[in-house]
Amino acid sequence: MVTKPESKFTRRGMLKTMAAGTGAIAATSALPGLSGFAQAQSSAPIKIGFQVHRTGIGAAYGRWYNRTTEAAVKRINDMGGINGRPVELVAEDDGTDPKRGAEVVEKFATQHECDIAFGTLFSHVVYGSSPRAGELKLPYFVVSEGHHVASGKLNRYTLQPGITDVKSQVQAMAPFVANNLGKKVTMIFPDFAFGHDHRDFFTAAIEAQGGEVVEHIAIPPTETSFSKYFPRIPRETEVIYHVMVGPAVLTFVKELGEFFGPSSPEIFGFIDSLEAVDIKSPGLEFLEGTYFWEGNPRNAQADQTSHDKAYRAAVGVDDNGASVEDAQDVSTYSHMFGCWETLNIIKRGMETAGYQGPADRAKLIEAVEAMSDMPLSDDHPQGAKRFNGKTHQTFGHQYISKVSDGKLVVEHTTSIEDGLYEDEVDYTTQSF
Amino acid sequence: MTDSQRSQLLHLGVIALLFVAFFVLPTYHVGNLSRIMVLAVYAIGYNFLFGYTGLLSLGHALFFAAGMYGLGLSMELFDLTTAPALMVGLASALIVSAVIGFLALRTSGVSFMIVTLMFAQAGYLTILYFGSYTRGDEGFVIQQADRVLFGLDLSNDTARYFAALVLFSVCFLAVARLVQSPFGRTLVAIRENEERARMLGYNTVAHKLKAVVISGTIAGVAGAAYALLFGYAGATFATVQYSIFPLLWVLLGGAGTTIGPLIGVIFMFYLIDLSSDITSAYMLIAGVVLVLLTLFAPQGLAGELRKRVFKWMP
């Protein structure tokens, strides 16, 4: 188990030694000031460092993560804040870059003196930032859907309580695909870590359902034209499983449509392919009748809950999943709810821990680790969750939608149990 | 006081300043300086090839990544401890730079630039291709327990700062010494006029190859140190962006000056850090400042200082 050895050779220690001569006098005169600060601190805002992808490849997600986060913080403040203190967001752009991500985490902890850091989406930024958060003992709540947290590769200070991870999502899809669409699957995925996660987890999951992946087609990340890969799709394929991301997604989907024409196998994709993209965009007509995983249904459904309605209104999203101010500005609805839910979990955790300041960070983590079932509510509008305190990862419902008349209509909702898997780590055994 | 003594005083003064900075600067800036010193080592390596030898490479990210992955993968896959892993990182960068140098030096000028860029891109795609081992673009964390060197826990802020300072000082002083040596003077002669250097009897190809290897190895050491001190190795560091960074740092700081790389990294780091507090379009501010500097201080900050005030500056 990874534990950090306590070093006696610290900057603070050295400074203390050097200042020993004058320290006593200074402390005597500073005491009234110190108690004054403590008093002020109790009503001072709780500072949440928001690591946001404003620029770089994650910018489209970052824009909506920002809107959701601001809406959630406003709601929390309108309800009286946390432990009677207002919440202040300190947003810093990480450029969707792991190096800058780590620098931003450092800035939160040592310059802005934030209580926690929050909000990272892209996995490589989480990997780059998490070690520094652990060293700085800064609770780091990510909204990434990567398997990194539950895999045990990070540390006790990194948690993902507001969004499910890719392993759980993919695993939960397999029963529906095998039972409703077909058992012989061809997977088309980007040839980098995100795609490899899909390849590995789904291949195992579909085999467990009695199906098989008949062909894995990995697309290099620099590819801009996809037609040449499609002849590799075996004739026996019953289902195509695709999960492309990035700027070439539209081209990919259009070329897939041109390749198959009117007769194609069943097509199942992850909405990651089309997050922030209008499904009615020219060239995407062939998606009609195909299926998508959705983390949270983009289109308001016939049985929409009051919680989704309230959440949508607060963030400013219309019934089609676009901004209420601009119908062309389509949201990243399947992911951004994670910001909303994570902030509500942080609030609950701080209240349970009686959080007063950075000295209570360990208590906050223990309070979140102690959480388990979270019912569907205004705090959790996507659906009920089950948090695993040992793996620092939440589990929840997934949605499978069919494109009908240009809208995503939910066909199936998975159970929480569909996405559960064996623990791969127990972070609670690590020391603070 | 001779120019040589002045130079030595300057170099030791810079190191002393960095030492004192640890005790007087706020915690945030101390953390930043740790990163800056490691990145400055990368820039020092780049400057050796670009500033002193006149070879403009756009593929140094490959050498940085070779050091980073040499260390990271030997720990991750073969459970090597820190010291041997560091040596593997260094050796990886040395071998990769020797091979790339051998092939790329068949070209010169713009072709050299393009060939190094292509090799670096191939290296980046190789990291992605072997994603099962490298975890591709996501990269992997080097656990705290593995980051202990000679009993020092390098995830501790103090140990990290002084490890970075020692590494920086060694590279800084060694390169400052090297560029004043007959070998370094020959490289400058090649930079100024390769034909003339060859006519004087120097084997310019061998000299340039040595320069690529030294430069690439220093870049690789910086990559290994970055992974070790900050606990992460990832393919982002092999992208073309990370080949362009050292070029910018060196151009800003002053190519062919010993303190230019450090000044360039500090300037660029704080330019982005401070402008990002003002606007989300901080890269625009950075871009405008870079254009202005290129227009009005084409020799970089240290280069201009040398030209206008301190003519003895190395």
TrEMBL record, chain A:
Matches recorded under PROSITE patterns: TAT (PS51318)
Pfam family, one: Peripla_BP_6
Family that this chain belongs to: Belongs to the leucine-binding protein family.
Classification lineage: Bacteria, Pseudomonadati, Pseudomonadota, Alphaproteobacteria, Rhodobacterales
PANTHER family xref list: LEUCINE-SPECIFIC-BINDING PROTEIN (PTHR30483), PERIPLASMIC BINDING PROTEIN OF ABC TRANSPORTER FOR NATURAL AMINO ACIDS (PTHR30483:SF6)
Gene3D superfamilies, sorted: 3.40.50.2300
Protein name: Branched-chain amino acid ABC transporter substrate-binding protein
TM annotation in the entry: none
Keyword entries, A-Z: Amino-acid transport, Signal, Transport
Natural source organism: Parasedimentitalea denitrificans
Domain Leucine-binding protein: 45-406
Highest taxon in the source lineage: Bacteria
Automatic annotation (TrEMBL), chain B:
CDD domains reported in the protein's UniProt record: TM_PBP1_LivM_like (cd06581)
Membrane protein topology class: Multi-pass membrane protein
Compartments, as annotated in UniProt: Cell membrane
Keywords from the UniProt entry: Cell membrane, Membrane, Transmembrane, Transmembrane helix
Residues passing through the membrane, by range: 9-29, 49-71, 83-104, 110-130, 161-179, 211-235, 247-272, 278-298
Pfam (any one): BPD_transp_2
Primary localization class, coarse: membrane
Keyword Lipid metabolism (UniProt): no
Annotated protein name in UniProt: Branched-chain amino acid ABC transporter permease
